[in-house]
What we know:
This protein has one domain (23-104): Orthogonal Bundle (Cytochrome Bc1 Complex, Chain D, domain 2). It has 5 helices and no strands. It has helices spanning 2-30, 37-41, 61-72, 81-88, 93-104. Helix 1 packs across helix 5 and helix 3 (61-72) packs antiparallel against helix 5 (93-104). Bound molecules: heme C. Heme C is lined by residues 29, 35-37, 39-41, 53-54, 56, 64, 67-68, 76, 78-81, 83-84, 87-88, 91, 99. The site of heme C (HEC) has 24 residues, from helix 2, helix 3 and helix 4.
Amino acid sequence: MKKVVVAAITCLSVSAFASVETESGRQLYLSPGKGGCATCHGETGNEPVMPMYPKIGGQMEMYLINQMQDYKLKKRKNGLFVPMEVAMEHYSDEDILQIAKYLASF
Ligand code: HEC
């Protein structure tokens, strides 16, 4: 019985820690006044409003960081890059790390 209780507490604290870890990224991602990410990609990044918008929730963290940095530094110029260049202008390098952590958590 004791073991079960310990296991349950461990699970709870791990998931609480995970949500604390991704909370600031979630705020940055959802923040309506800033980049409007969720307006186009949906709350978890997987509900794009247009069929030609990509699903980004659950993508690898390092990949997400690289793509966001490339738009911000105006290095990625494919397809529909314009809204992304504008969206990423508002975010610092640290913000990008936090957003990537949030999106990769799905
Ligand atoms: C106006 C709609 C719009 C907004 C707002 C927007 N995006 Fe995007 N996003 C797109 C489109 C369209 C693409 C595909 C662009 C391309 O072809 O390069 C994209 C691509 C991406 C990619 C790369 C996906 C891949 O697999 O290569 C990431 C990551 C991303 N967006 C994250 C974000 C984040 C984070 C924000 C908020 C800061 C945001 N987007 C705001 C429309 C939007």
